[in-house]
Amino acid sequence: MLKSATILATALAAGFALAGCRGVAPPEERAARADFKAVENNYRHGHHALQLPELTNDSDINDFLRFAMLRNPQVEAAFYDWEASVESITVERSLPDPTLTFETYIAGTVTSLMPGLMMNFPGPGKLGARAEAASAESRAKYFQFESSVLQTAYTVKQTAFPLLYLDAQIRVDRQTLALAGDLERLSRAQDEVGKATLQDLLRAQIEQERLRTDIVNLEDSRHSLMAQFKAALGLAPGEADPPLPKMPAPAPAGMSDDELFAAALTNNPGLKEMQAEILVAEAGIRTAQKEKIPDFSAGFETDVKASPVVWNPQFSVTLPMWRDKIASEIRAAEAGKHAAAARLTAGQIALAVDFAGATFTVREADRELDLIHNRLLPRARQSLDVSRGAYRSGQVDFLNVIDAERTLLALQLDEIAMRVQRETALAQLSLIVAGLPPPDAPLLDLPHAIANTTR
Looking at residue 413, which CATH number applies to its domain? Predict the structure, then answer.
């Protein structure tokens, strides 16, 4: 009886020992974990964000971008999706858990007591193919994370610039309101000397009321724009409104169009994700082809009540006999690859269209800004000065002065609108199209595992 108990204890100990085993990580798993660790060091301490930049009225736009990239919940969700995909590599390359079996025969009394241990072994190459597919999937998840980071940075700029230029619009309207006040005082003075009519005074007052209403409407629209800006930063509606970044100087376009397009084809995370999907499909084909190989099971049982002890080795093998099923799995995987390749081609075409649209918008805005700032605005200011002088001398009526004032206001607002359009298009071009990350973005600088497998 003591011997039987010893054998039973040995079998149980063997089972628990196997339960504490660790597999051997393949190179692609080690590379994926190294990449994840590198990003994690720049993005999270455990499950907590790194120290967020303090946002003040003196902060530049890059401080706001880093704040959003660390705080925005969409970026956080993409990060943890990537982490989950990295962990799945270990799951896919690991052997199935062993099974501890127990069998007994009872005929009035226990006549046989047979503990045992069984282990399943997938066919040669199957675990490697599954790990390869999981590694390719983790690369695609990284590029989704990268897209989320760049999209967040773009959204911050897309919502910050209208706010900045809305404040500029309000300043222009207030300056114009002051100008309209000057016109009212001028019309009063002209009326006192008999050179103007009450109608001129009323027109000046009407113009001031119109401008006051415009200012109120602009200030009211600021609440909606601020809500969008807070959402881009990852701030909840109940949190205090953040300050705005400093007004950026007009940014140069930087690289030539050819250089930018080459960078877009290389860096665009959407295209890189599609390239990774092709690798996923190729790994799926190899995994499906491995289904032709049988799986194996091996183990033993021992009857601890027998004397001498009876050992019962066991061995089984699957029979992959359903060839039509295997063929369908291979064809489905091949179709997935063709679909991924077609999506990549479509993505490259769409990228070219987006690139052409963004670069045209930048060039058009440059031309419009040059026209407005260097030629039209100086003449509009001169025209207003001339009109005011001519009105004092009675050479023109008050409508000419109002028309000159409105022309100047419209050109000033057009300049602001063109700056918004240009800066937004440049942000789209660099972040979304070309995939060029802003400073301090929590992304891989040299993603060795990813770069080596997506070229």
Answer: 1.20.1600.10
Q: Is 112 helix (H, G, I), strand (E, B) or coil?
A: strand
What's the number of domains the chain is made of? Answer: 1
As beta bridge partners, residue 117 has 100, 300
Domain assignment of residue 197, yes or no: no
Q: Tell me the residue range of the domain where 256 lies.
A: 2-43+59-169+210-453
In a domain, 181, yes or no: no
Distances (CA, A) of 225 to 155, 158, 222: 12, 10, 5
The 8-class DSSP code of residue 46 comes to T
Residue 66, domain member (yes or no): yes
pLDDT tens, N- to C-terminus, the chain (455 residues): 445 455 545 555 555 555 556 778 888 899 999 999 999 988 887 767 678 888 888 888 889 999 999 999 999 999 999 999 999 999 999 988 888 888 888 777 777 888 888 998 998 988 888 899 999 999 999 999 999 999 999 999 999 988 988 888 888 888 888 877 877 777 777 666 666 566 777 777 887 888 889 889 988 888 899 999 999 999 988 899 999 987 766 666 566 788 888 888 888 898 998 999 898 899 889 888 888 899 899 988 888 877 788 888 889 898 888 888 889 989 998 998 999 999 999 999 998 998 999 889 989 999 999 999 999 999 999 998 888 788 777 777 767 877 888 888 889 888 888 988 888 888 888 888 888 888 888 898 744 444 444 43
Among candidate residues 440, 60, 439, 59, the one with its CA nearest the CA of residue 249: 60
Indicate whether 203 belongs to any domain. no
